[in-house]
Amino acid sequence: MKKLNQQGFTLIELSIVLVIIGLLVGGILVGRDLIKAATNRRVISQVQATQTAISTFRLKFNGLPGDMVNATDYFADAVNGNGDSYISENTGMAVFEGSNLWNQLADAGLVTGNHPPVIVDYNPPPYLLPLLMKRRCTMFLFM
């Protein structure tokens, strides 16, 4: 009998390679899901911490941070808001309440970091006023 010269892989070798590839792909997908879940948990934790800080601020100072009309009575570097119970970016004032929210929370010791107040020269050209009045960027917080 003559021996045949075999070339190629056996079925066992191919099945082992497929199992290894499957394990690698499965591990990568599970790892990606774990990273996504950890990111989601971190975001939820940050939102809950912010909600707690804002609620504490409201109880302590009787106003929304960033929106308080008497913020300068409590904090030296604060900028007063318009007191409409909304954290608004388009208030018609020289104040960005959303940015000043973080400044006032930091001044109250409820969040960490450096959050300077934001004051702008709010004198847009007259032709932009209709556009600015249509765009009301408001964030509703815990009403």
State the gist of this model:
By secondary structure, this protein is mainly alpha-helical.
Overview features:
single chain, 143 residues, mainly alpha, two-stranded antiparallel sheet, 4 helices, 2 strands, rod-shaped, disordered C terminus
Description:
By secondary structure, this protein is an all-alpha fold. The chain has one domain. 50% of the residues lie in helices and 3% in strands. A two-stranded antiparallel sheet has the order 1-2. The longest helix is centred in the N-terminal third of the chain and has 51 residues. It is rod-shaped and about 100 Å long.
The profile of the biggest β sheet is:
2 strands, antiparallel
Q: How many domain regions?
A: 1
Helix content: 40-55%
User: Which residue ranges are poorly predicted, with pLDDT under 50 across at least 5 consecutive positions?
Assistant: 131-143
List the secondary-structure elements in sequence, H or E. HHEHHE
| Biggest sheet strand line-up | 1-2
Terminal Cα span: 92 Å
The number of helical runs is 4
Strand % is under 5%
